[in-house]
Amino acid sequence: MHHSSQGMFKNNILSKSFNLEVFKSTTSILTILFLLVIGSRFVSYFEQASEGLIDPSVILYAVFLRVPDFISLLLPLSFFIGILITVSRLYADREIYAYFSTGISPITLIKFIFPQALIYMVFTLILSLYIAPVSKEISNELLKVNTFEEQIASLAPGEIYGIKGSKSFITVGENNETNLKNVIFFNDVGKDSILISADTLNISSSQLDYELLFENGSLTAGVFSNDAKMISSFKKFEFPLVNNQTHTRTSFENIFSSINIDDSLEYQWSISLSITILVLMVIAVYIGKVEPRQGRLSVILPGMLIYILYLSLLLLGRDHIAQNNQTNLNLIFIHLIFIFFAILLYLKDKFFISITRNKFFPYKTTLATILILFILWALF
Predict the structure, then answer these.
(1) Are 137 and 180 contained in the same domain?
(2) Neighbours of 17 (CB within 10 A)
(3) Which phi and psi angles does 102 have, rounded to 5°?
């Protein structure tokens, strides 16, 4: 009885230690990946803002609203790499044998971190199924430049800008939002295209169209016509611009109500992100084993290749289902492939341990080669 309670006490200590290390590694990796994604998104948005495509004042809010989407995508990868790093370090530093000496096996390590994986699963499911779609939609709405006035207000001097909803282009020397100076305006309607150059441009709008009032300029008609071009000067010239745009600003309530969480594909994708956490957890514990002098980070490349293959197949499956509504393909079939792979790893560890010691069976090299060939096939 005494030995039994002592063994349970040791197992509890080792379980807490293992969970803590996995949690620290997962948190660190998630933070690094999150900052990289956020940084790249900021760069992309500011680049678009410099071109007048989006309003700079909403960038911070738009990125903040994408946080749930980013976390739901990064958490499975972070947890997977966190387990890989933790297990490989235990093998490299020979600390794993302290676990084995108490009767702990790789399957016991999986049991240790299963509660942590379950928490990540539920968290990812809630984010991807309920929160991320709503926040992503609101973020996209914030980034939209919907009206002609908003487009003009965001127009940077010296930039050529295509007006949405028309075949017109405009560039200005100075932008005071409603009063533009040193304006060049081009309306592309084939042979009847016109080019207007004016000192100032004022804009007035109605429900149906916009009135562009040019002052002190010249007009060239038939720019691409083979006939003689008409060039004239003017003090004032009004040009109607038809408003072909639709207002897409919607409230939070409308966006939320428009999202159907019962949609089969979206539901499959949200569930899939959660399932990957469990499947990758099992795979990581078994492929995290490193031989002496091999290096604790030598398992990262095979691990990343497995993750890329897993995610690529899920994305390909999702795109295939989206393009073929009558298809019988279900994302669960892709999960079954990797569940089968995890079972093989378990059986290899339990019944065919001698295989891993066979120098003539470089299974990791073979696996990496297969995965690289698949990725090259998918890309090209």
Answers:
(1) no
(2) 15
(3) -95, 10
